[in-house]
Every structure is written in C-alpha cells, then in structure tokens.
Prior knowledge:
Radius of gyration: 25 Å
Number of helices: 16
Mean pLDDT: 87
Distance between the termini: 99 Å
Structural class: alpha+beta
Shape: globular
Number of domains: 1
Order of helices and strands: HHHEEHEHHHEHHHHHHHHEEEEHEEEE
Low-confidence stretches: 1-26, 114-127
Amino acid sequence: MEVLALALVIFTFSITIFGFRRWSDRDTKLPPGSFGWPVVGETIQFLFGKPEKFVGDRMKKYSPDIFKTKILGEKTAVICGPNGHKFLFSNEQKYFAAFRPHPMQYIFRSYQTKAPAAKPPEVPRDETKVLRQPGFLKPEALIRFLGKMDSMTQLQLQTHWEGKDVVKAYPLAKTITLALACRFFMGTDNPDRIARLVQHFDDITVGMHSIMLNIPGTIFHRANKAAAAIRTELMSVIKEKKDAMESGVKMQDILSHMIVITDSSGKFMPEAEIADKVMGLLVAGYSTVATTITFLMKYVGLNPDVYEMIRAEQMEIASSKKAGELLEWEDMQKMRYSWNVICETMRLVPPLQGTFRQVLTEFTYAGYTVPKGWKVYWTVSTTNMDPKYFRDPQKFDPSRYENGEAHAPYTYVPFGGGPRTCPGKEYARLAILAFIHNLVKYYKWEVMDPLEKVNGDMMPTPEKGLPIRLHRI
C-alpha cells in the first residue's frame, strides 16, 4: 500500500513538473523557425546550399529580424539586418561571447584532449588575445612588414606567372597569401614548406564547418588528416625557432612571442597548444584574403573601366618611387579607389559568410526570447544585397563608396564590429593592396569563364580556379 502511495506521489510530481516545463516553454516566446530533423537539424541545408540563401529564405518565411534553427549540433538564433548587427556588436560579453563550432574546436584544440565533449566555460577564452595584446597587428608593426609584403608579392608573380598566357588566379592567390601569413606569423618563407601546406589548409578551411563524421572519405576526416600534417610541420618550425633563439638570434614574429610568454604562474605555453594556435592564425590570415584577391581579379577583369582607374591610381604611386624602392605606409593611404574596389568585391562575395556566438544569459530581441546556452549566428549576408541599403545591389559598382553615397550604419560590416572587430583587418587591407599594386603594374587580364560556378559553402570558391588570360604590359 505504501509502495503504491509512493508511486502515485512520484507520478503526480513528475506530471506536475512536466506540465510546468511545458507551460514555461509556452510562456517563453522563442524566435520563429524550425529546428529541422532530429540530431542533424538543418545542418545539411545550411552547409550544402549557399549560406546566404539559407538565411534569406528563412528571413522571408519567418522574420526579417530573427529566426531559430539548429545547425552544427546547436540550437541557434540568427539575428538579421543592421539593427541585428548593432545589437550584437553592442552586447559582446554582456549577452554574447565567442564560440567555435565543435568541428573547429576539434581541429584547433588537439592539446585539449576532450575539447569537443567538454562543457564550455561560462565566458569562453578570447583566442585572439595573443594578437591584440602584443600589438602585432597595429599599424606601427605592419609598417615594418609592408616592404616584405611588397617584395614577396613581386617574387610570387614572377615565379608563377611570368611568361605564361593562361593561368588560374585562385591557386596563386592562395600561394601568395599563405606565404605572407607564414612569414608574418611564423617568420619563415621557405617556399617548399609553404607549397606542401596549401592543400592541407584548403581541407581545414572546408572542414571547420562540417558534419563531425570522422570516417575516411568525409570532409571532416580530411580536415583532421590535414590538421595532423600541419601540426607535424609546425612542431618542426617550433623546434627550429627555439634552437635559433637559444643561439641568440632575435625574433619578432608571433610564433616567437608564443614561445617566450608565460602565464600568471610563470609556465610557458605547451608546444602542442602553440602549434594549434598558430595553425588557427594561419587559416585566418590565409583563406579570407585569398578569396577576396580571387574575386577582385574576377570583377576587375570583367570591368575594363575599373581596371583602368585602378591602374591610373597605382601607376601614379609607382612613378613616384625610385628603382627598387618598396611600398611605404604613405603609398597605401593614396590607394583610395583601389580600396573602394576591394570593398565592393567583399560586398558581393563576402570572404567569410558569418561567425557564431555563445549566449551567456537569456535576452530578448525583436520581441523574442533567446535562452542562455543557445548559439547566435551572425552573418553579413542579411544586408549586403538588400536594395534598401545598396542601390542596384547586383551591380559591381565601386563608385557607390564615393559621390556622397555613404552606406547607412551597420549595413556594411565585412570585418564585424564592436569589441570583436576582426583584428586582422589592417593586415588584410595592406596584403590585398600590395597585390593589386604589383598586378596592374605589369598585367592586364581577361576572365575566361565569366559564368564559372562558385561553390556555395562558408568560403566561396570558384569551381575551376578562375582561369584568366594574361597580357604582359
């Protein structure tokens, strides 16, 4: 009898709690949308379609301000439009903190043996801190590196394009940007070592946002194999760097800084952690810059009038230089039209579609509640192609950044905003400008397939590598 009574009490209590939870869920006005299929959610639609289409379709169906979904294993709110950008940028560390999707955590945190399964901290560590504190990406540091950017770009163009009629733009863009990133972040410019790494970095870039299925033949498996190969190479570089430093050679690169810094207890960073962090920095400094250079060449090649205006600007700078004199900081400030062309390229083809945040505490936006523990996906694609903010948005038109047509606040944010504005923004600007300066001095080109397909994932990629016909000037 007592057992029956106890069972009845437990049953009643469970029903009450279940009903309370159902009632609480009903009281919480979650954003409209769908979590999709069990387990996988809407990940397949997100990854294997175009991310901007995924977002745009759901903005039309559910809300232009916010909608919910489930991607890469996470319940996610997608906050849209310029008001969404402003809300996100203004509330970093209050409502949001950086979050890396689990595939990315797995790839870049091998030194944390249980990283993917571990419970995330209440306030995740800002992994860009190593860049922001020592000032490696501040103008005064980049000024010292600018001449090297210029000379390395010249050498790469001579090595890979000199004497050729038809080339592929994308492979060269990747080689140049990886060479620059290796020199800047690691202080190495060994061309053989860099050539070995290009394909590995491509595999990692795709695998950062993928389904975590680690079996042969999958994107995630290839990314893990690539990461292991790069770690092996980086461990060799770290050993070489330590030996050189012990022999008294002075180093001023980010890798050397990581080797010598200590935490509050005086401990040095473990080599495995250094390797993973440097790999993450190289990916960040490689893929987005290479993508922008590639599509810059496409749009400039398709618009001869734009090419002529860029060349006039760059040749005026070149004519002011003595033979063998490299670019200087003052030269970069004169490249205003060239930068407008780069901005228009990034508007039409954002080099990075978006990033994720972790929700630190429940908040309300546009009348909807987003619970603590959810993720927020921020994307540039909710404003870039909207005719409300950009006249004739499908048209490639660098003049829209002058002639008094300034875009409204928070409508054009290719580098993010607020406290988490991309720390590499100035590095990317200088690298792309140095490339276009050297390119138009010596070459004119034609895009051979203007309708070449662009593969739709988080990193836009021309399917054939953007073949172009070169004309040496």
